[in-house]
């Protein structure tokens, strides 16, 4: 059983973490701005499809990623408009976006590719894993760290970028103020609407990257419902990490690990129905423990 | 004697013997602002001179808040103009107002509780080094300002952890950091002890000596008489009086505020004491070194009004919540009408004879989106005549509501109207009507007249006195000393979770209570 | 929004909803035109597919479980509680009912009744689990109900792929329930009596909401939980009971589909029609008010059945109607009127 904890597992974990992590950054930025979003699931799904479509029709993986990011931003604009400008309920709008993405991706899969279920083609350009020259040769760490997609490296670098942004720059301070006490921010001349819109659109771009990693990163295909609850796990990661970059990173890694272990156990012969449930059960238990430890709500 | 309002004369900024030409720091002329159904400001002229402390007075609903929102750029006036130091200005947002030297200290602080003091103060005007905030410079500047004006505060403290009086200093620092020449203080003393008020007045005089101007919005007469130079009184959206403080009197100001002669009636003593109806023994909320409520012990008899005085935030809310059952307690006993309810949930405590008018009528006392009928039924809906078994009798509910609306003269079109549309006073009437209809032996009223105009306040006071005269036990929690002193037969004072005094009304005066409220023994 | 006199809901149904539907239909028309289809033809086929001839029966048949799943969300939503776990509760309800029907001794009618009750209890208890998570452990129901879907679906999938699998067919499904233990059909129609069960349930819920003490307390909690608690309502107990009811409703839907239409438990069969999420949308649109939620559900059912017909007639994927639905709810949600704050705390 302990045999599954090997280098391959950790490499796979890092891969599995990436989309969750990016979606978690998306959620974190929105949370800090005071926008409670659960649209990551739909944004990721729509982006995953767009990445494949972009890569297929333009012929290049990077183009696919670009399309995914654009689609992510456009879809998140719905949340910005409905939730921030018109002050609608962001939970309902988030669910609406998720449902829209679900239906639209299946619809377009049929219309554009004439396929139901899964679109897969050897000619489809996916993201190539990058080999980092110096690091790849270090024993143990090397094979784990090297050989990931550039989106993965970006997702991890964002820990530092987001931390610095939030706690060391003016915009970060103002964003935090907007999220904490929008009234106070407004009286000091900070446009709550502008900051929240920016946060939502940024989250859309991040989910765009997450979706691209999903469909062009570890695999190169699109299947219906591909996001498979990862967006929701990202929501939980933000809660567990209390919207703090380090905490969110930790939570995301935990779930990625559970995900990767589940996949590995499948390889060992356990039915996938049971191993698929692993990340969700882990999430629930982690939530229960974490919330209990915190005395105040 | 009224003041004509303009023109050079020897004014209070004369200070050290030099004769300054007195200028108008700012003027608001002909300000009109309408909202659906009401004219909040109906042609108001307000002139404030440089270097003076000017009071803006009026009851709740007179138009002060609207006027200040306009001044601060939060909303544009429908008509009228604002002139600052001789130049006409138009404020599209608070940033414009700040740019012209206005600083506002709001009644409910606009602070970021999770951020530090320095982050709050420099927010949106952060000193920078390249793309990053220059934290050292920020802390230094905040420290320097706080020393200069006597506003002691630790720049690195988290604002949410600071006591209320200190948080107010942060608000003032915010304005000073932006070099506000005009400081508007909106009801600043509501959250201060009498001693802290004196401290605030000292700061104000300091600021004025520095050629700044202060507009002091309040409804408290005593303070106005103590520290201001001139007074403008608003009533029903118009200016009802312009007075020079040293030439006028409390009565004259009150007459301008209310439009009639209000006599400060002496307290009516209770007619007879009954059995103890509410007994609280060693009630403790919270554990460890600093519990929220520490071993509270007192009793309230039928036929008396017991008041709990104290600055808000000293454990009064927690005490009441624990008594009522909205909050768990850690130790102690509670008896209602002789019945031990310590282990019982709220519903059973109510049944034992407890009714409760909560501090926050909107968040707790009502469901704003529900009809008056729905709101008035709560608590009665489990039995006859509003329910038979588990079925509701809707028409009985409506009749019940109509009766209560009539009895308490609630201004509402009908019982199916949402209560969220009601004014503060009428909403409070709905809460009081419901709670008192239970005819419980014990009535707990928490800040019952907060935000109400004089008419509604008088109504609530009369109602509470009537309950007492009917032989019920009334526990009144209030941070308005005048209310406590005019209604209560016995006065308790709470400070930092402890009951530090239990006085008969005749033994208490404002000075003594003020000291107790501040923790002096 | 208040619920008081009947004229209120009527007014509500008339105001922001039609506008959003109209705008949604326009946006849908644009989507269709952009992908090379004729909107008029498409909408005509949708309407025809939903209401003409035998299609009307299908619409009714589809409405029943959809309205049921709508109630599974609407009932807790009335109290401000979020039940996103419809899928899991539905699946468990179907699974447990099939297990009982296949293994219970006794005459068919006994099996049937026991299976129905078991399915109801399974769904109810599973939902109550999430409620307990919030009451006791402060895990928000929004998240826990949602996450719990996956283990439930996975577990059912596992059972029906391996231990419970009927070896006769190539598909992962259980053995068939014997004829005597099935819900009878409605004579003269291809419909099952499960439709009647749903109607009865909905009527009961509407009466509960308007006429009972508990319904009043639930409504007040939805408008201001603190007010309800202050008025003496036991909020924790109420949360547990109402989530149980919501889950029980979903369980009933699962059980009645299994016992009344498919007569076996087939992997994915209960969730693929997407009753849960459509029902969720209908409930959200109505802010939890049962009657308008039911009406919205029937509207969505018609839209979806119409989509099937549209696909048959024009080869346009039926997911187009899901897209239409999503657009409509996004428009409605964006209006300031739809302001229900879904509560995360008890």
Detail the topology: elements first, then pairings.
The complex is a heterotrimer of chains A (297), B (521) and C (346).
Chain A: H1 7-33, H2 40-58, H3 61-85, H4 90-113, E1 118-120, H5 133-136, H6 141-145, H7 150-168, H8 170-180, H9 182-187, H10 192-218, E2 221-223, H11 230-240, H12 245-267, H13 272-276, H14 278-293
Antiparallel strand pairs in A: 1-2
Chain B: E1 24-35, E2 38-49, E3 53-57, H1 64-71, E4 79-84, E5 87-89, H2 94-99, E6 102-105, H3 117-122, E7 128-129, E8 132-133, H4 135-148, H5 164-177, E9 182-186, H6 194-209, E10 213-218, H7 221-227, E11 230-235, E12 238-244, H8 250-258, E13 276-285, E14 293-301, E15 304-309, H9 316-324, E16 331-336, E17 339-340, H10 346-353, E18 354-357, H11 361-365, H12 372-377, E19 387-388, E20 391-392, H13 394-407, H14 424-437, E21 442-446, H15 454-469, E22 473-478, H16 481-487, E23 490-495, E24 498-504, H17 510-517
Parallel strand pairs in B: 3-10, 3-11, 6-9, 9-10, 15-22, 15-23, 18-21, 21-22
Antiparallel strand pairs in B: 1-2, 1-4, 4-5, 7-8, 11-12, 13-14, 13-16, 16-17, 19-20, 23-24
Chain C: H1 6-14, H2 16-34, H3 39-51, H4 54-78, H5 86-103, H6 108-137, H7 141-161, H8 194-211, H9 213-223, H10 225-230, H11 235-262, H12 275-285, H13 290-314, H14 319-334
Characterise this structure:
The complex is a heterotrimer of chains A (297), B (521) and C (346). Chain A has helices at 7-33, 40-58, 61-85, 90-113, 133-136, 141-145, 150-168, 170-180, 182-187, 192-218, 230-240, 245-267, 272-276, 278-293, and strands at residues 118-120, 221-223. Chain A has 297 residues and is an all-alpha fold. Chain A is globular, with a radius of gyration of 19 Å. Chain A starts with 6 loop residues before the first helix and ends with a helix. The model of chain A has no long low-confidence stretch (mean pLDDT 89). Among the domains of chain B are: 276-366 and 422-517, Rossmann fold; 370-417, no CATH class. A 6-stranded mixed sheet of chain B has the order 6-9-10-3-11-12, sandwiched between helices. Chain B has a 6-stranded mixed sheet with strand order 18-21-22-15-23-24, sandwiched between helices. The model of chain B is unreliable at 1-19 (pLDDT under 50). By secondary structure, chain C is an all-alpha fold. Chain C has one domain (16-334): ABC transporter involved in vitamin B12 uptake, BtuC (Orthogonal Bundle). At the A-C interface, helix 3, helix 4, helix 11, helix 13 and helix 14 of A face helix 7, helix 12 and helix 14 of C.
């Amino acid at each position: 059983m302990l045999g599954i904890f090997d280098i391959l597992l950790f490499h796979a974990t890092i891969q599995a973490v990436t989309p969750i992590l990016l979606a978690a950054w998306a959620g974190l930025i929105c949370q800090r701005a005071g926008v409670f979003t659960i649209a990551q699931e739909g944004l990721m799904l729509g982006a995953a499809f767009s990445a494949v479509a972009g890569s297929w029709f333009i012929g290049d993986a990077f183009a696919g990623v670009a399309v995914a990011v654009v689609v992510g931003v456009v879809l998140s604009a719905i949340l910005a408009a409905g939730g921030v400008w018109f002050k609608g309920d962001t939970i309902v709008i988030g669910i609406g976006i998720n449902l829209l993405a679900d239906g639209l991706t299946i619809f377009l899969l049929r219309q554009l590719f004439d396929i139901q279920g899964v679109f897969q083609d050897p000619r489809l350009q996916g993201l190539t894993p990058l080999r980092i020259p110096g690091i790849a040769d270090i024993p143990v760490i090397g094979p784990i760290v090297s050989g990931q997609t550039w989106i993965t490296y970006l997702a991890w670098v964002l820990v530092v970028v987001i931390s610095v942004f939030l706690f060391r720059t003016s915009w970060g301070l103002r964003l935090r103020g907007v999220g904490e006490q929008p009234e106070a921010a407004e009286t000091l001349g900070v446009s709550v609407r502008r900051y929240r819109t920016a946060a939502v659109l940024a989250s859309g771009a991040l989910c765009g990257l997450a979706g691209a990693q999903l469909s062009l990163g570890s695999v190169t295909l699109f299947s219906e419902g591909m996001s498979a609850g990862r967006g929701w796990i990202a929501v939980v990661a933000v809660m567990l990490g209390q919207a703090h970059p380090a905490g969110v990173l930790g939570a995301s890694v935990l779930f990625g690990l559970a995900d990767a272990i589940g996949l590995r156990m499948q390889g060992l012969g356990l039915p996938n129905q049971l191993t698929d449930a692993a990340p969700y059960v882990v999430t629930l238990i982690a939530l229960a423990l974490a919330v209990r430890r915190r005395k105040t709500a | 004697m009224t003041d004509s309002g303009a023109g050079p004369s020897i004014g209070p900024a004369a200070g050290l013997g030099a004769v300054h030409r007195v200028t108008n720091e700012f003027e608001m002329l002909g300000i009109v602002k309408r909202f659906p159904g009401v004219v909040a400001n109906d042609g108001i002229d307000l002139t404030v001179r440089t270097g003076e402390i000017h009071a803006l007075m009026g009851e709740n609903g007179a138009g002060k808040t609207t006027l200040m929102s306009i001044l601060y750029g939060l909303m544009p006036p429908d008509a009228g103009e604002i002139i600052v130091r001789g130049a006409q200005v138009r404020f599209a947002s608070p940033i414009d107002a700040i740019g012209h030297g206005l600083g506002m200290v709001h009644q409910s602080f606009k602070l970021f509780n999770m951020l530090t003091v320095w982050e709050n103060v420099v927010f949106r005007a952060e000193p920078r080094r390249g793309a990053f905030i220059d934290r050292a410079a920020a802390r230094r500047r905040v420290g320097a300002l706080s020393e200069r004006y006597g506003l002691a505060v630790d720049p690195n403290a988290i604002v949410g952890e600071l006591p209320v009086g200190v948080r107010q200093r942060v608000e003032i620092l915010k304005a000073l950091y932006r070099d506000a020449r005009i400081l508007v203080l909106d009801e600043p003393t509501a959250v201060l002890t009498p001693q802290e008020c004196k401290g605030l007045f000292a700061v104000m005089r300091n600021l004025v000596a520095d050629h700044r101007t202060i507009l002091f919005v309040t409804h408290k007469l005593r303070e106005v008489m103590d520290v201001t130079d001139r007074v403008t009184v608003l009533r029903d959206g118009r200016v009802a009086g312009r007075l020079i403080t040293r030439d006028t009197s409390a009565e004259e100001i009150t007459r301008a505020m209310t439009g009639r002669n209000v006599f400060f009636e002496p307290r009516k003593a209770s007619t007879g004491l009954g059995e103890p109806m509410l007994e609280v023994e060693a009630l403790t909320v919270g554990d460890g070194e600093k519990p929220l409520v520490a071993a509270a012990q007192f009793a309230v008899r039928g036929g008396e009004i017991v008041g709990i005085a104290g600055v808000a935030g000293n454990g009064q809310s927690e005490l009441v919540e624990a008594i009522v059952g909205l909050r768990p307690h850690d130790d102690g006993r509670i008896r209602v009408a002789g019945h031990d309810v310590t282990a019982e949930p709220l519903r059973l405590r109510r049944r034992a004879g407890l009714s409760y008018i909560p501090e926050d009528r909107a968040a707790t006392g009502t469901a704003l989106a529900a009809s008056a009928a729905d709101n008035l039924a709560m608590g009665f809906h489990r039995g006859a005549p509003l329910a038979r078994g588990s079925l509701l009798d809707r028409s009985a509910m409506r009749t019940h509501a109509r009766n209560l609306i009539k009895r308490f003269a609630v201004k509402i079109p009908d019982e199916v109207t949402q209560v969220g549309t009601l004014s503060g006073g009428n909403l409070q009437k709905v809460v009081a009507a419901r709670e008192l209809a239970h005819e419980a032996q014990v009535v707990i009223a928490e800040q019952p007249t907060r935000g109400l105009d004089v008419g509604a306040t008088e109504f609530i006071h009369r109602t509470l006195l009537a309950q007492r005269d009917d032989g019920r036990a009334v526990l009144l929690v209030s941070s308005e000393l005048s209310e406590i002193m005019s209604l209560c037969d016995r006065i308790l004072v709470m400070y930092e979770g402890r009951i530090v005094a239990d006085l008969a009304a005749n033994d208490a005066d404002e000075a003594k209570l003020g000291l107790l409220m501040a923790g002096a023994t | 929004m208040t619920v008081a006199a009947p004229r209120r809901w009527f007014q509500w149904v008339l105001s922001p909803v039609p506008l959003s539907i109209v705008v949604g239909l326009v946006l849908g028309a644009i989507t269709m035109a952009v992908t090379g289809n004729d909107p008029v033809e498409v909408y005509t086929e949708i309407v025809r597919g939903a209401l003409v001839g035998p299609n009307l029966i299908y619409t009714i048949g589809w409405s029943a479980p959809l309205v049921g799943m709508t109630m599974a969300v609407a009932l807790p939503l009335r109290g401000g509680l979020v039940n996103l776990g419809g899928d899991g509760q539905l699946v468990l309800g179907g699974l447990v009912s099939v297990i009982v029907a296949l293994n219970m001794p006794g005459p068919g009618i006994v099996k049937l009744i026991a299976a129905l009750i078991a399915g109801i209890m399974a769904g109810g208890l599973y939902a109550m689990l999430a409620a307990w998570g919030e009451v006791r452990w402060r895990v928000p129901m929004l998240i826990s109900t949602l996450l719990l879907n996956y283990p439930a679906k996975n577990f059912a999938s596992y059972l029906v792929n391996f231990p419970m699998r009927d070896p006769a067919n190539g598909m992962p499904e259980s053995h068939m329930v014997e004829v005597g233990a099935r819900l009878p059909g409605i004579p003269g129609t291809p419909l099952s009596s499960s439709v009647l069960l749903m109607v009865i349930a909905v009527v009961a819920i509407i009466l509960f909401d308007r006429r009972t003490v508990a319904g009043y307390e639930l409504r007040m909690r939805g408008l201001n939980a603190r007010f309800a608690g202050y008025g003496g309502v036991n909020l924790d107990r109420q949360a547990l009971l109402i989530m149980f009811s919501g889950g029980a409703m979903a369980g009933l839907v699962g059980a009645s589909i299994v016992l009344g239409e498919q007569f076996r438990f087939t992997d994915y069969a209960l969730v693929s029609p997407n009753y849960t999420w459509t029902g969720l949308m209908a409930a959200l649109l109505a802010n939890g008010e049962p009657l308008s939620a039911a009406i919205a559900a029937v509207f969505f059912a018609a839209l979806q059945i119409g989509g099937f017909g549209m696909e048959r007639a024009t080869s346009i994927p039926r997911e187009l109607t899901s897209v239409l639905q999503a657009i409509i709810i996004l428009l409605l949600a964006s209006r300031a009127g739809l302001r229900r704050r879904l509560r995360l705390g008890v």
